[in-house]
Write a structure and sequence with these properties.
Number of domains: 1
Number of strands: 0
Distance between the termini: 65 Å
Structural class: mainly alpha
Strand content: under 5%
Shape: flat
Length: 72
């Protein structure tokens, strides 16, 4: 049993678990940073005033132009 634990700690599985830990840690930092940014009143005002629907509606002509150029 102790031999399996030693191989698990020193072997490839240890590197995989460490990489997974780094990935989850990075994702947590991204979420935390986005929360800090979105909690700023100025940013909330900018996002609330524009609205996601207005941004998508404004981007549709650009997307249509891109698709037309891409099909050429």
């Amino acid at each position: 049993m102790s031999m399996e634990v030693t191989q698990h700690v020193n072997g490839q599985e240890s590197n995989e678990s460490r990489d997974t830990l780094f990935i989850w840690g990075g994702a947590a930092l991204v979420v935390f940073g986005a929360g800090l940014i979105l909690s700023t009143p100025i940013i909330r005002r900018y996002l609330g005033g524009g609205g996601v629907g207005n941004m998508v509606h404004a981007a549709i002509p650009d997307i249509q132009r891109y698709m037309k150029l891409r099909s050429m």
